[in-house]
Amino acid sequence: xxxxxxxxxxxxxxxxxxxxxxxxxxxxxxxxxxxxxxxxxxxxxxxxxxxxxxxxxxxxxxxxxxxxxxxxxxxxxxxxxxxxxxxxxxxxxxxxxxxxxxxxxxxxxxxxxxxxxxxxxxxxxxxxxxxxxxxxxxxxxxxxxxxxxxxxxxxxxxxxxxxxxxxxxxxxxxxxxxxxxxxxxxxxxxxxxxxxxxxxxxxxxxxxxxxxxxxxxxxxxxxxxxxxxxxxxxxxxxxxxxxxxxxxxxxxxxxxxxxxxxxxxx
Amino acid sequence: xxxxxxxxxxxxxxxxxxxxxxxxxxxxxxxxxxxxxxxxxxxxxxxxxxxxxxxxxxxxxxxxxxxxxxxxxxxxxxxxxxxxxxxxxxxxxxxxxxxxxxxxxxxxxxxxxxxxxxxxxxxxxxxxxxxxxxxxxxxxxxxxxxxxxxxxxxxxxxxxxxxxxxxxxxxxxxxxxxxxxxxxxxxxxxxxxxxxxxxxxxxxxxxxxxxxxxxxxxxxxxxxxxxxxxxxxxxxxxxxxxxxxxxxxxxxxxxxxxxxxxxxxxxxxxxxxxxxxxxxxxxxxxxxxxxxxxxxxxxxxxxxxxxxxxxxxxxxxxxxxxxxxxxxxxxxxxxxxxxxxxxxxxxxxxxxxxxxxxxxxxxxxxxxxxxxxxxxxxxxxxxxxxxxxxxxxxxxxxxxxxxxxxx
Lengths: 266, 407
Prior knowledge:
The complex is a heterodimer.
Chain A: H1 4-12, H2 14-29, H3 37-57, H4 68-98, H5 100-105, H6 112-138, H7 150-174, H8 177-191, H9 215-228, H10 234-265
Helix pairs in contact in A: 2-6, 3-4, 3-6, 4-6, 4-7, 4-8, 4-9, 7-8, 7-9, 7-10, 9-10
Chain B: E1 4-15, H1 19-27, E2 36-48, E3 53-57, H2 64-72, E4 79-84, E5 88-91, H3 104-114, H4 119-133, H5 148-159, E6 166-170, H6 178-193, E7 197-201, H7 205-211, E8 214-219, E9 222-227, H8 229-240, E10 247-252, E11 258-263, E12 267-275, E13 281-282, E14 284-286, E15 290-299, E16 303-314, E17 319-324, E18 332-335, E19 340-348, E20 354-363, E21 372-385
Parallel strand pairs in B: 3-7, 3-8, 5-6, 6-7, 14-21
Antiparallel strand pairs in B: 1-2, 1-4, 8-9, 10-11, 11-21, 12-13, 12-15, 15-19, 16-17, 16-18, 16-20, 20-21
Helix pairs in contact in B: 3-4, 3-5, 4-5
């Protein structure tokens, strides 16, 4: 999937990759007085909005749970992890186009670009999710050992996102429709995944459709771990893992086959 | 270390009749290709030996930039290939990827990392980078407050912080102020001395002739000519003037130098000579002596306005002096066929010892780009020797009177 040559290129350009991640983080807040505080404030605001609207105004409560806190945790479990997925995919589909100048004029291992996107998304996710974990511990809702089941889930999710991002990123260079399509598709996908609502409120005839949504087992896994402290549905996660590996393999193949042509097209 | 081999290099871009046809080609590969190839570079082969400096010349669109991109590996060749041995630094797009909100120092790190250096390596080189860029406190100001010249200073300093085995330079040096141009050129010369192989793309005659051992002329995506810089530069100049179906002739002189003659031929230089004070033709001239350049022009067809110009060039083809009768306000109007005109330019030979050549141009205005009746390179070759004066250095005779005060 990744050739030794690519790995060597990545290693040689590790300084560039790490530097770019750092710079992108800095550049976002370089001219802001509050600086990096904004990277926390914006997701916090989003969570607040959802919590207030859904849990207070719409009186939504998780079936089988009485506390408002439970719904907020449910919401965060889904929204924060979806945010990681969405950032990789949406930044990934435009990564080659955005860096067109660099790609056209400077010779460097192009595989650095997806890595930078993924690392950036992970940094952003790390900050907000770290805060969330602190909140869980402080409020006494930390699920204990079951929490660490999150690690394999995140791994599968990031792989899945990378696969999609690579495919969308390369295709978008040649067919700009792909980028537009991905943006719209991601919005539908968000609402078709039980993130702000529990799957149980879906009518029974619609619910089997969730089996076709690879994000559903992952998000439900996070919710199971964080809200109920139970293990995710490993069989469902395994199926997504296989799909993720297939997508990555296809994405890398596409990238390696079209990388040369891509430069001419940009 | 430092060799470049370009073999049968070709580059074509795919063009599709419609956007959908690319999709069709991808989806239905068995239905055959639907694109046509647009060739921008074809069958280019040359070698650059370690330590050699080669200039690449060509009009816009001749394929120079594409060739450089292929050599640096930015784009993939359609045919053939490039092999290089040794580390490569390319000064193609200086300041590429500079982020306006970051300081010069931060951008220097970024630029260095794009060259594959680690942060520690760049930190170690930073004092030297700063010293070379000479932008003082601006180094820690955001790049958006920089002038383009300052940006270029930082970019150049980073790109050349380490001596590469191969240095590829694309016209970048024409940016920036004269002082920094000199400074950067000195650095390139220094690298040359230390054994760096150089590939230089430029329209600047001086740059090519003073640095390069050899030049390559690209025309229409093909390698048109390869040879000594003066010869290629002369051919190139002739080629530019050549946009009206004229022919370029090349006469090989006895000493192996190639004389390039181009033009429409309404008038031609029949004879050219240097005459000394006693009226004798000379080929060796003493520094500072009074001479006359005598040019006999034969007119073959009527010319409404005729101007004769000449240029004295040194061994490397750099112009020492040039003027014409338009600048001297002495053009000839309505010259008729069969006429013979003798021009005499009297001057003191205030050049340093060395071999010089004279190029002549018969034109209608101040440049040879409007009407080029005849352009003749190496029309005359002469030698300046220092016979009577104390030794001095350089190619100009700028003898001072010296006044010294001791207190």
